[in-house]
Write a structure and sequence with these properties.
Elements (H helix, E strand, L loop, with lengths): L6 H11 L3 E10 L11 E10 L2 H14 L5 H19 L5 E12 L10 H11 L3 E24 L5 E23 L5 E17 L2 H6 L4 H20 L2 E10 L6 H11 L3 H11 L5 H17 L3 H14 L3 H24 L7
Parallel strand pairs: 2-3, 2-4
Antiparallel strand pairs: 1-7, 4-5, 5-6
Keywords: Signal
Protein name: Tetratricopeptide repeat protein
Pfam family, one: DUF6340
């Protein structure tokens, strides 16, 4: 389903930008990749990467010192990852009620994924926290890769003479591999298991390698930022979540001043007034002008959340006026209709009023 928000609209935006366009942002619910059972209504989060043995604690400290990431940075990153999972489930969706309790569970070993928690243990934890299930971070590992390239920069002295100075560009790739499981109390076993890889690239520049390194954020900050991405990504995996969409619309058309006036109203948030003018332009005898007006009416309906009406207007633009951009937009709208049906199915168990 996520393809509806990427490749198709990349081409559409490029076409519209060449034809004098503006844009509007829309928030929409995207379906979860893995639907959860209806009886899973409330969850608590847990961190299970706390080393259980002294030997594992020693190896964690040794790894942090050897890689240069620092002592305890994986533990701090894991805590941040679990925090973000809970925040994203609570704030970016209304599929679950999320308890504030962040459970700390012993269990980390040199294995990446431990065996699942015992069903009775899961049920006991859920009863104690009064939830229907647990979202548990069960594996967390960071890896840092540094690379650099040499170059030159030029500057002019007071006499106007150019000089070349060697420079160094440094890149640090911070990768985090996480493992999540979601457990249900009614079932007592794993409802979902996922191994994720997330990374971000950080860069610095300087006249020397040490100076370029000093421009990089501290490793613990880099791990924290990638951990946030990982936590948010898993929350979106198991719960419908809001995403930001960008829609472009035509701002003018030759021989029709109403298109420009309507665009000004849309930019001011007066989509009803803009739609009234676009409906007038849609009666223009020139199919290029009418096609743009039909297209903009489709965008106006999507902004208001009326996808069936948006599809009807897009069809008129695409097939009555042969508007190429509208044909692309129609595919996107049809995909959104399918995604909306999936979201409604995934949320049908949520009590009304949430």
């Amino acid at each position: 389903m996520n393809k509806l928000y990427t490749s198709t609209f990349t081409l559409l935006c490029a076409l519209l930008l060449s034809a004098c366009a503006s844009s509007v942002h829309i928030r929409a619910l995207a379906p979860a990749a893995v639907p959860m059972p209806a009886n899973l209504q409330s969850v608590a989060t847990a961190n299970r990467i706390i080393p259980e043995s002294r030997r594992d604690k020693f190896f964690d400290a040794l790894e942090g010192a050897f890689t240069g990431e620092g002592l305890g940075v994986d533990r701090a990153g894991a805590d941040e990852c679990v925090n973000v999972v809970g925040q994203a489930l609570a704030n970016n969706s209304y599929r679950f009620r999320v308890t504030q309790a962040q459970l700390q569970l012993l269990g980390r070993s040199r294995e990446f994924f431990l065996p699942p928690l015992a069903p009775r243990y899961v049920q006991d934890l859920c009863r104690r926290t009064q939830v229907d299930g647990l979202v548990v971070l069960e594996a967390f590992d960071s890896d840092m890769l540094l690379s650099h390239t040499n170059g030159f920069r030029t500057y002019k002295d007071k006499e106007g003479t150019e000089h070349k100075v060697p420079t160094v560009h440094v890149e640090m790739i911070m990768k985090i591999v996480t493992g999540f499981r979601t457990y249900g109390v009614a079932q007592g076993f794993v409802l979902d298991q996922a191994r994720q890889e997330d990374q971000l690239v950080f860069s610095g520049n300087g006249d020397s390698y040490p100076e370029a390194l000093r421009q990089l954020p501290p490793p613990e900050e880099c791990i924290r930022r990638v951990a946030q991405r990982a936590g948010d990504g898993y929350a979106r995996r198991i719960a419908p979540s809001y995403i930001d969409l960008n829609r472009n619309y035509f701002t003018q058309a030759k021989k029709d001043a109403r298109m420009k006036e309507a665009a000004l109203r849309a930019e001011a948030g007066d989509w009803t007034g803009a739609a009234t003018l676009w409906q007038q332009s849609a009666r223009h005898l020139d199919p290029r002008i009418a096609g743009r007006a039909f297209y903009n009416l489709a965008v106006a309906c999507e902004v208001r959340g009326d996808l069936p009406a948006a599809i009807d207007w897009a069809k008129k633009s695409a097939f009555t006026c042969d508007n190429a951009q509208a044909r692309q937009y129609l595919r996107v709208l049809n995909d959104r209709m399918q995604a909306q049906a999936v979201v409604q199915e995934q949320l049908k168990s949520v009590p009304s009023g949430n």
